[in-house]
């Protein structure tokens, strides 16, 4: 997951920075994890309901960074957003393109920390389990903020995983990085909602929704 190559982690990735994982090799089985593939109807509904509250109500342009196989991109597209997905893994991008075939969506192979979108601007930047793996999260956040239109939103889903060698980014660290850059933000704690993960979890999982002036 170097530079945000995917939108999730698994138990096998705990203790890894993501940089040493072959995400192309993992692409075929990536959606087997409940919160990756969203194949379980209850898990899918749980994520759809969260995205409904996180993304703008009106249809707009959403940038899904570290989009993986496009599961969250699909939920956004179903709410009539135009989605641009970026992932460093070509195999993940191929699966995302297939998953959203016929939808108002495009997928690009590229670095989530410096998305290859040119001068395009967005109403929301969505990143799930990406920021923790980047070498300079603060710099990435500044870059992402510049990709937003006035009043746009950052939707950042992160956490801290594992007990022996935990990896991730705590909510207080992320909000500290964001505070100088945004107009307002809120934190939603997600660990207590097992439907999102397809199981009970005890580690720190959360979402930060921040609005720029």
Structure description:
- The protein is of the alpha/beta class and 213 residues long.
- The chain has helices at 23-30, 34-37, 41-54, 71-78, 90-99, 137-146, 171-178, 194-197; strands spanning 61-65, 82-87, 105-109, 122-128, 148-161, 167-168, 184-189, 204-211.
- Strands 1, 2, 3, 4, 5, 6, 7 and 8 form an 8-stranded mixed β-sheet that branches.
- A hairpin with a 5-residue loop joins β5 (148-161) and β6.
- α1 (23-30) packs parallel to α5 (90-99).
- The longest helix is centred in the first third of the chain and has 14 residues, at 41-54.
- The model is unreliable at 1-16 (pLDDT under 50).
Low-confidence stretches: 1-16
* Largest beta-sheet characterization: 8 strands, mixed
Record field, number of beta strands: 8
* Helix proportion: 25-40%
Order of helices and strands: HHHEHEHEEHEEHEHE
Which geometry do the CA atoms define? globular
Q: By helix and strand content, what is the structural category?
A: alpha/beta
Radius of gyration: 15 Å
Q: Quote the beta fraction.
A: 15-25%
Q: What would the average pLDDT be, to the nearest integer?
A: 91
End-to-end separation in angstroms reads: 31 Å
Number of helices: 8
């Amino acid at each position: 997951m170097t530079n945000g190559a995917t939108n999730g982690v698994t138990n096998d990735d705990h203790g890894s920075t993501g940089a040493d994982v072959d995400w192309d090799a993992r692409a075929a089985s990536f959606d087997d994890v409940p919160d990756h593939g969203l194949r379980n109807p209850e898990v899918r509904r749980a994520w759809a309901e969260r995205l409904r509250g996180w993304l703008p109500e009106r249809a707009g342009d959403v940038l899904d960074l570290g989009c993986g196989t496009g599961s969250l991109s699909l939920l956004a597209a179903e709410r009539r957003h135009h989605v641009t997905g970026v992932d460093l893994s070509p195999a993940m991008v191929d699966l995302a393109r297939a998953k959203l075939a016929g939808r108002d969506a495009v997928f690009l192979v590229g670095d989530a920390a410096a998305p290859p979108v040119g001068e395009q601007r967005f109403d929301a930047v969505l990143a799930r389990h990406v920021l923790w793996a980047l070498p300079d999260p603060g710099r990435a956040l500044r870059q992402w903020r510049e990709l937003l239109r006035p009043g746009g939103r950052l939707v950042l889903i992160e956490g801290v995983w594992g007990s022996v060698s935990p990896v991730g980014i705590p909510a207080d660290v992320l909000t500290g990085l964001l505070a100088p850059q945004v107009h307002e933000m809120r934190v939603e704690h997600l660990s207590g909602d097992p439907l999102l993960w397809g199981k009970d979890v005890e580690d720190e999982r959360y979402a930060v929704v921040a609005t720029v002036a």
